[in-house]
Design the sequence.
């Protein structure tokens, strides 16, 4: 599977699950069964995440394509990590710029999504021979 798709799916699937666990269990002190019963909301979060992250992932693909043979894997991943982290913050800022000035549950969302995508950049193997069509 393509590196970009792996990072993208990893982020949009794992982030809502982490958000549900962190907001549900830790912050709102919900039971595990209560968190599991909110699977419809998690599914919607995954769909919305897929759709809203498309522009950022297209730019991710353009950046990765342009870096393909210019840098080592670690330098390329550093650049992709920086872009990914910023792209999450910019996407959420476009949706609601108020999350920066006030602490809210949405701020936790941004932190989880940005850390998850950076983790995805580093977990998956960057194949230099991969054709990025």
Sequence:
């Amino acid at each position: 599977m393509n590196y970009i798709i792996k990072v993208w799916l990893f982020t949009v699937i794992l982030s809502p699950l982490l958000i549900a666990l962190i907001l549900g269990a830790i912050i709102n002190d919900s039971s595990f069964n209560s968190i599991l019963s909110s699977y419809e909301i998690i599914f919607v979060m995954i769909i919305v995440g897929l759709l809203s992250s498309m522009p950022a992932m297209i730019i991710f693909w353009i950046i990765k394509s342009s870096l393909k043979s210019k840098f080592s894997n670690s330098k390329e991943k550093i650049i992709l990590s920086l872009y990914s982290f910023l792209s999450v913050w910019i996407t959420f800022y476009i949706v609601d710029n108020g999350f920066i000035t006030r602490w809210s549950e949405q701020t936790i969302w941004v932190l989880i999504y940005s850390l998850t995508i950076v983790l995805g950049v580093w977990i998956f193997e960057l194949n230099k021979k991969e054709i990025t069509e």
Q: What stands out?
A: The chain has one domain: 3-123. The two ends are 13 Å apart (CA to CA). Residues 3 and 126 are 6 Å apart (CA to CA).
